[in-house]
Amino acid sequence: MLLSLREVTTFYGQLRILEDISIEVGEGELVCLLGGNASGKSTTLKTTLGLVRPRSGVIEFDGADLTGHKASDRIRRGMAIVPENRRLFGPMTVRENLEMGAYLNTGDTLEEELERVYELFPRLGEREDQLAGTLSGGEQQMVAIGRALMSRPKLLLMDEPSMGLAPALVERNFELLAEVNRTGVAMLMVEQNANMALGIANRGYVLSTGRIVLQGSAAELAADEELKRAYLGR
Question: Does residue 216 fall inside a structural domain?
Fold first, then answer.
């Protein structure tokens, strides 16, 4: 198993956000994490990446116990994140934003990684000298994903990839994520658009007030009547 969270409990101060959650992501697998607002989804990603330290539980990644390790160590070992709202450097060019994702790489591989991202997202190659802040929402999302891919991650953490995108762009965005996943990059994706997330995921978990209340294959969750009523609007 590439990623394993076992009975992880996380607090913000005295407020418990996650309670004994257990999540697994296999090599090359796309797993979605569903739930309403304040359910603990983003905190799960922050805990996985090491931005928040759990009060208890174990986090293993690629065969190593990383529970007490810093985020920088986890990134070196193969994690990367596409944060909510993309958080690009608007006054910098597309290329400069992408290069920021490769800061742990040696200079010898930079051009190779750029070429790989441009092959996946040809639009970025066409706009590499354009300021990131002037791009459309969909193009900015490509930059955010490309920046994360510049470090050649084994696991990509996605925080609300459809947030802020025009409805017409959401479907294309999920097609891009599925394409990235097909290259062999595993994903743990937090998303409120359950229909779209389950459409490309292998498996999923549902969080409610910091606890996992449902889990299963994407097909099983999409057919679950409770999930349909709560999150799929049908």
Answer: no
Give the helix/strand (H/E) hosting 4.
strand 3-12
- Kindly give the pairing relationship between strand 64-65 and strand 155-159: unpaired
Domain around 134: 88-152
Residues 6+ apart with CB under 8 A from 182: none
Contacts of the segment 112-117: beta carbons below 8 A, 24+ positions apart = 113/149, 113/150, 113/152, 114/150, 116/149, 117/146, 117/149, 117/150
CA-to-CA distance for 234 and 225, rounded, in angstroms? 9
pLDDT tops 60 at residue 107? no
Q: Which pLDDT score is estimated for 1?
A: 94
pLDDT bin (cut points 50, 70, 90) of residue 234 is: very low
- pTM value is 0.89
In a domain, 111, yes or no: yes
